[in-house]
């Protein structure tokens, strides 16, 4: 029976979901896993605040639990990896987050990582995450384009800003590989790479790749399942 | 009018809440802020998994929003600091987390920090947090007592295990200051310190102290409020 | 009997001492500890060089020893924390340094710390300290206003330079919380915070807060008292 | 036309090469790239010293140059990643090293990485590499089985030692994900994972996965091609 | 019998070798070791790419083996330290690399290190090395002059660019000590230091100093000699 | 005229001073600088506490100032490097500290450093220093022999303890190079190295070597001299 990777876009935008689905098409191989992309109708329209992230995290964990038997691996397709660690506790199947995967993949493509983010408000959250991963020494800068998730659909404006930000990351901060800090930027990867002459990572592609690898080779996640307490606890 | 610090214990245990309230009594000073402790009836009985943390985080953020006008500063009294950053976006008033405050305070009391945790399952979550804070170089070890939150009420067993773990942190890992990794351990601080001869930090006390300081001196939090996107976004 | 926090300004300026005393007034609560501020008549006029720091350090350690029975906690009110660790060996009572306390407090208010210093000559000393604390990953920049301690009393010039430096820290270096790197800057905290729209930490306030907390909760310092050598040493 | 990933085992052992080929079979998908494994007849019998690594590195770079038009992506299948960066300068096509890929993949499967190495002599070399990658904060220990590459074919002895070392990594050093530090250990992954109950990464599998992802999504490597010097250089 | 330090310039330029020899003259003391400088006729004309480094590394290791009995200590005189670790395995005598020695020496002369490199293409290689040494926290920037090794002989152009780059390292990046990132820059040390008013380290001088010290005091290198495998390996 | 390196042992022990002088004899070369060793009669008998360090620091800075015209380079011969940075501000001549030099030299001899200290009480002070240098990632452990400075003269006991501690550093903590954390351990270097089979660094030797190198090549220290304040300060 065909294996299946379920990509969960935790916001409610079908358009973003379709763009992710198109972006990862090259890993839909005959005999390989299906790669299906869904969005969460109850999710925020765009994930811009910590509250959005935490809200989305709950929905993602629930979605993974609901689809546990209908998929063999999961991808959380939001650059804040909402619900990633809760989902990993909820299933023994591989769960990849696009931020984690995108950054790890960039570490194999270049030396100094620059991140193109949507909004300045996300930067402290991002840096907490870079540090939590233990890789902040490899990230030279994270610069926002200053556009909301929805605004990313205005292609001309968005691309111009992304190119401008990418150039600043390379020329002023010494980045030699870029990571797009949003699932909704997928369509800009190829033209951005052409314009900047440096590798640009679409984190959704990176995560589907890592999910496929983990799935095909039966890699487990190091689940931190709550062990049995040593002492029996009545009434809990 | 009297200022008020609201300590939110995100689990549902009144017993733990009462113990926290007793532990922080020494900062209830005439003319100073009231320090009121509540628990969340809808919260988990104990916070042991990432799912518990994420669930509690939503409740904490909501509670802070609800009490925004009825308090002048907030403390999140669970060692995973659930909802801390969302709460900081929800209010301009100081919000302190006990893990963050407890670790920062320990850095002023000793050189090498050892953490006494409840369950081994929390360790990866704790280390992600130590790294996210950028202080993992100061934490030499985090060892679990292997007892669930509820089991902590069996005082004899708990204290014996905490002393054993504390000794291992000091003698085998070189810790010279200890942080108790759970709001429910408050009653053991003084006897543990006596038994081990090293400073032991109750993180709830540390957090109330930091909240009081921030409140009295009108310190703001560096709120990462979502800035206005540069481009107007129709339909959002 | 009333408890007492003794704030030691190790330079000889009564004016700076008075300003510190005014700055920390909000933590003088009925029933709480007195907070008394003294300066050291033999101390340097301003602490600008390593030699000043080392000189002041000796005086601070001596002052702590002298007042050991007349105070319950101590604050060293110079941003180089002169004599801090010697003082901690000299008394079991809490001793806080304003640099350490200011930086730790900033870590709970923002993500990326910027420091406003007096003179460029202090920068290597500061960075040795940030690294010694293990928090250099959280400090994005330390910029000098280029004014000596005494010159800080020219309020117009000083404030203009501090605002300029603060802006550079925020806009060019990405700081989202600022620490004033001198006890003599206390009066500028509130207007600077208003002008910059980001939290600004007065390190003396932070240290009095941490001292109060440690004192009220009987926290010990992890004193590195010289243990008994294993082998008796004749003639020492 | 079918794409092709060329896996270069830089030692001369056909047996090890066959084992790698078997280990990566699950990523040979219809319509996907071929994954061909070769060894280098002139390579060392086993790669155990820095001299072996440097020797192998020259051969790998040459092999990549020779096969540049006959493959679309390359994997260097030795845990010291010999020649990896030279190969990346020699071709614009993706080149993955199994150490780099194995470690990055482990970072998505667990929190604290333990490495199972062949010989103690490799440890300083490994740690230089962990630090060069900027991820040494995630590696808790690297322990040798104390067996040469050839000896790894004695399955009973080898597996017993690997299990023993794996247990020490988990129980004494706190590892929650293990990386096998040798291409020649591929056959032991599954039984080791079963025996230890923690994820075990075969680095060759991880690298083929990352190569496949990079290849299918046209990711470039951030090639550090020597730029044109600013000043013309006669006679060079 | 007189001791002898052999300085190996791994490129084929006699001119650079002569300049190194002149630069280290002050450590040729009566009764002290001879300091002889050779270049490798088969080496690259200049070492600008990873391929050059790896090629040179093989030649260096071979040269150290060949001269093992004719010298008492070795210096590898190229800022990429080619073959350093292989050479250390090949002899129990001290082997110093100029990058490692130059950077370590700079750490005793200043706080924030700036590196003046030849070409931008070397930067990722350099940063991998700074991190491998575990000192990247002390290096604030590495800026290229953008001139090939041979072009360094055009003294006017080179010095002007080095001064410009040095100034940027100091004024824009906060460096207070500079390291020249190339053995071929020796002649510019003194004038550069005069022009910039900050210490400038010639790494060849630093390495000859460390070699002399190690040699005179019989310091061994911690040779990672391949231990005997635990299990006999037939046919290897 | 002959150059002169002045080695200042900041404690009052002539015996330790003589032992240092004997240990560094091999760098007294004809035509090279004299290496003279003095102790400070007013210094502590042994430097065991932070108070001793601070006291000694003042004496060292004064001694450097007094001998400024009578020496060309200075070495501070106590493993806490008392007064090092003040001395560097007091003279433009090279000043080396034995802790700094010993650790930097060890970084060129091995990968993982172990430190053999006198007393456990020094460990927090040492770790603050390792971190201040930015090299704590290279130090795997610092273990005390538990003997006071004076007791080090009981050679049998001391050597037995040092060997025991050295073995623990190597076998339990993975050190492959050791640094003796006290100027008074000089005589034990050679036998310890023989007994342990790993390089052992005498920090006084390392510092004299670095001073000689800096002196012979006219390297300056990056003196953080207090710049002229921008604004004139009346009456200071």
Quick overview:
The structure is a homohexamer of 236-residue chains. Chain A has helices spanning 14-23, 50-66, 84-90, 98-107, 123-133, 155-171, 189-196, 203-216; strands at 4-9, 34-39, 73-76, 95-97, 113-117, 139-144, 177-180, 200-201. The first copy, chain A, is α/β, with parallel strands linked by helices.
Explain what the structure shows:
6 copies of one chain form a homohexamer. With 236 residues, chain A is α/β, with parallel strands linked by helices. The first copy, chain A, has 2 domains: 4-97 and 205-216, Rossmann fold; 100-203, 3-Layer(aba) Sandwich (Rossmann fold). Helix content of chain A is 40%, strand content 15%. Chain A has 8 helices and 8 strands; from the N terminus they run E-H-E-H-E-H-E-H-E-H-E-H-E-H-E-H. The first copy, chain A, has helices at residues 14-23, 50-66, 84-90, 98-107, 123-133, 155-171, 189-196, 203-216; strands at residues 4-9, 34-39, 73-76, 95-97, 113-117, 139-144, 177-180, 200-201. Chain A has a 4-stranded parallel sheet with strand order 2-1-3-4, sandwiched between helices. In chain A, strands 6-5-7-8 form a 4-stranded parallel sheet, sandwiched between helices. In chain A, helix 4 (98-107) packs across helix 8. The first copy, chain A, starts with a strand and ends in a 20-residue tail after the last helix. The model of chain A is unreliable at 224-236 (pLDDT under 50). Chains C and F meet through helix 2, helix 3 and helix 5 of C and helix 2, helix 3 and helix 5 of F.
